[in-house]
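Researcher: Quick test of sequence recovery. Tokens follow.
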């Protein structure tokens, strides 16, 4: 019996080590905007790991106790499952699969952390190794000029410096807490100080105000007991916030505008939201209503597929109920980590503050970090609810089956994305059959749908093209989907429908010149001289955000129409 127990312990330790190292490896891979190999690897590993973790419980070498928060998270997942299959709102398959993947990962990590105690230092070291890798990668990019974005000198493994700075803020929080906790003059403390200072330097290069605010919040939290008696210094952080705003006021005004419209979108589906992944469509619909009643923010209006605030994004997609559940989980996790693992708590707070001004949880590495830290906090919680053994077995079996099904779906989508990249942008009519083959797996990919629609337009299949474009409006807030629909209607001489599409595109982002120009050309085609002249005057007087040859050409054409109209 003792020999069997030792064998099970070896399995437990091996599984814990392999899974945590795998998560660290996946978090370090280059981040893509669509389905990636990292997500496929994770989906492939989840059912196997869940079965491996189940062995100690089956042979009764370990016992599992549900916590209150476990039932809350599982109920959250069940709610989304019911809403998805009842057709509530407009759920997007990609977002749903990623949510399911994270839920199964949570079950796996809860089982792993409950099997055998793992020190929080191991998780912290893993995060710091990831941060060191990103810092080193950023330094190489600064020296060689080989970042992943042409406009920014440093992006790490990410596509732009915004998300890159999040891991730097998390690393700062961890190291700052460790340095405050340990005053010894040893090599480990010097390593923490090195990572802390390196993180600050790289944050300065990214010029991420979200990361700066996250760092400031961690410092305030750690030193709160000391600083609260200096409340008279409150104007100082307020002044710093004003300075950060003035540094990039245009960007800040854009965020404020996005948040304003996002709040309007939340009101449309207040209780349970519009469905996972529905934010682009919900935001586009809310922006049309906003611009019919308001003018503030006109100059900074733009296309937006996320709220630059994860809590508002969640509110749009899952309503006030989803926000309440998330905040409850976060409060429990932060409170528990503050007691049992202060450095992890600081890292989590950094990430949560950063999420108020950006979109880290849209990316796999940060989803992994969030789920891992929440799972660890729950595993270390004191409250215990001892369920019937069958309840636990039911959760595990359901997780294995769901994760296995998700793996098949994710594998199909990863393969479809790879196939699409092989034909992307070619635009040949002969490839339309290939697009139809890929459509079931990529029917929520905006780039694919737009590219497919252009190919159908080239083949003069305007109705089919509009069907793809209409599908695209459900997953993207880009007004070009409506502009292209208007072009198709115009080619079919359905001018009324074309006018409606162009007008809708203009209402979505009113500072875009192209929809206005298309309306002018439409009225010119219909021989509606008065309306054409009215649009031409608006085009000629339009104040563009960025001048370009195309803009100058459209304005020149509008001025010519105005001159011709006045001569008559």
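Model:
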């Amino acid at each position: 019996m003792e020999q069997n127990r030792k064998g099970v312990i070896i399995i437990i330790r091996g599984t814990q080590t392999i899974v945590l190292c795998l998560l660290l490896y996946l978090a370090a891979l280059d981040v893509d905007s669509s389905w990636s190999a990292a997500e496929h690897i994770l989906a492939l590993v989840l059912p196997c790991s869940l079965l491996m973790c189940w062995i100690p419980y089956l042979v009764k070498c370990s016992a599992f106790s549900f916590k209150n928060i476990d039932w809350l998270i599982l109920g959250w997942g069940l709610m989304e499952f019911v809403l998805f299959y009842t057709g509530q709102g407009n759920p997007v398959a990609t977002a749903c699969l990623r949510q399911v993947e994270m839920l199964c990962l949570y079950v796996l990590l809860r089982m792993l952390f409950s099997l055998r105690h793992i020190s929080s230092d191991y998780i912290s070291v893993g995060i710091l190794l990831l941060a060191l890798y990103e810092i080193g990668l950023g330094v190489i990019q600064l020296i060689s000029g080989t970042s992943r974005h042409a406009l920014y000198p440093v992006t790490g493994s990410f596509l732009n410096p915004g998300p890159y700075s999040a891991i730097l803020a998390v690393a700062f929080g961890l190291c700052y807490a460790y340095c405050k906790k340990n005053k010894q003059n040893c090599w480990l403390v010097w390593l923490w100080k090195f990572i802390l200072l390196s993180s600050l330097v790289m944050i300065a290069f990214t010029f991420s105000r979200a990361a700066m605010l996250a760092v400031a919040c961690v410092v305030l939290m750690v030193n709160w007991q000391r600083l609260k008696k200096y409340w008279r210094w409150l104007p100082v952080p307020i002044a710093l916030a004003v300075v950060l705003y003035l540094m990039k006021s245009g960007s800040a005004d854009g965020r404020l505008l996005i948040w304003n419209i996002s709040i309007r979108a939340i009101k449309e589906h207040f209780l349970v939201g519009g469905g996972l992944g529905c934010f682009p469509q919900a935001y586009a619909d809310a922006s049309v209503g906003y611009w019919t009643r308001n003018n503030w923010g006109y100059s900074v209006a733009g296309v937006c597929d996320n709220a630059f605030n994860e809590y508002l994004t969640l509110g749009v997609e899952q309503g006030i109920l989803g926000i309440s559940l998330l905040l409850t989980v976060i409060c429990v996790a932060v409170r528990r980590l503050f007691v049992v693992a202060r450095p992890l708590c600081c890292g989590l707070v950094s990430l949560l503050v950063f999420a108020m001004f950006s979109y880290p949880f849209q990316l796999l590495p940060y989803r992994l970090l969030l789920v891992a830290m929440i799972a660890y906090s729950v595993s270390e919680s004191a409250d215990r609810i001892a369920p019937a053994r069958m309840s636990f077995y039911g959760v595990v079996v359901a997780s294995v089956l769901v994760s296995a099904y998700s793996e098949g779906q994710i594998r199909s989508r990863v393969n479809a994305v790879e196939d699409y990249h092989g034909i992307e942008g070619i635009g040949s009519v002969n490839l339309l059959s290939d697009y139809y083959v890929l459509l079931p797996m990529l029917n929520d990919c905006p780039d694919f749908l737009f590219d497919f629609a252009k190919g159908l337009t080239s083949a003069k299949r305007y109705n089919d093209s509009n069907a793809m474009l209409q599908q695209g409006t459900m997953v993207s807030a880009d007004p070009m989907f409506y502009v292209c629909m208007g072009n198709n209607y115009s080619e079919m001489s359905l001018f009324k429908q074309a006018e409606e599409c162009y007008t809708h595109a203009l209402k979505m982002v009113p500072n875009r010149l192209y929809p206005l120009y298309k309306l002018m050309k439409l009225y010119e085609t219909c021989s509606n001289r008065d309306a054409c002249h009215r649009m031409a005057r608006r085009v000629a007087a339009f104040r563009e955000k960025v001048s370009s040859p195309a803009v100058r050409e459209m304005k020149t054409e509008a001025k010519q129409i105005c001159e011709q109209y006045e001569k008559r």
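The mean pLDDT is 83.
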